[in-house]
Amino acid sequence: MKEQTASEVTQTNVSTTPEELKSMLDAKQEMVLVDVRSFNDYGMGHIPGAINIPLNSLEMLSKEQLPDKDAPIYVYCSTQDCSNEAVELLSGAGYTQVYNAGSYQDWPYDTTAPISC
Questions:
Q1: Is 41 helix (H, G, I), strand (E, B) or coil?
Q2: 96 secondary structure, DSSP code
Q3: In the chain, helix, strand, coil percent, each to 5?
Q4: Could you give the CA distance from residue 76 to residue 87 in angstroms, rounded to a whole number?
Q5: Of the residues 24, 32, 50, 77, which is catalytic?
Q6: Is 82 noted as a catalytic residue in this protein?
Q7: Average pLDDT, the chain
Q8: Per-residue CA distances from 97 to 30, 60, 71, 106 (Å)
Q9: What three-state secondary structure class fits 65?
Q10: If we measure between CA atoms, which residue out of 55, 109, 98, 95 comes closest to residue 78?
Q11: What is the β-pairing status of strands 73-77 and 14-15?
Q12: 90 CB-near residues (< 8 Å, 6+ apart)
């Protein structure tokens, strides 16, 4: 049986807790935090530092907005299932460090204020 190289090993869906994510954000750890909820949901408030790429646009916009396929990427959504789907989509597109940051509803820390027009 042929041994797999590191680049051939497929990543499993690895999750992080809100506490772990908050600690990494506070330490200014290098990462991309992606909110895959809709533009409207993102505008109602999001985790500080997150960029918004809605799940239904993720495949199309990821090449432009996430050019480094080896950067650590943490995704969250309204539900765990949606986050899982985003992790699978990005991993399938060749991103090597994609982590499930869970649900926005589970985030117990400060968020951005709603964006007003």
A1: helix
A2: S
A3: 40, 15, 45
A4: 9
A5: 77
A6: no
A7: 88
A8: 12, 19, 6, 22
A9: helix
A10: 55
A11: unpaired
A12: 58, 62, 66, 73, 75, 98
User: Has residue 37 got a pLDDT over 80?
Assistant: yes
Tell me 88's DSSP state. H
CB atoms within 10 A of CB 9: 9
- 21-58 b/e (C-beta count within 10 Å ≥ 16 → b): bbebbeeeeebbbbbbbbeebbeebbbeebebbbbeeb
User: Has residue 104 got a pLDDT over 90?
Assistant: yes
For the segment 45-54, the average pLDDT, to the nearest whole number, is 96
pTM of the model: 0.85
Supply the angle between the helices 80-92 and 55-65 in degrees, to the nearest 10.
Answer: 40
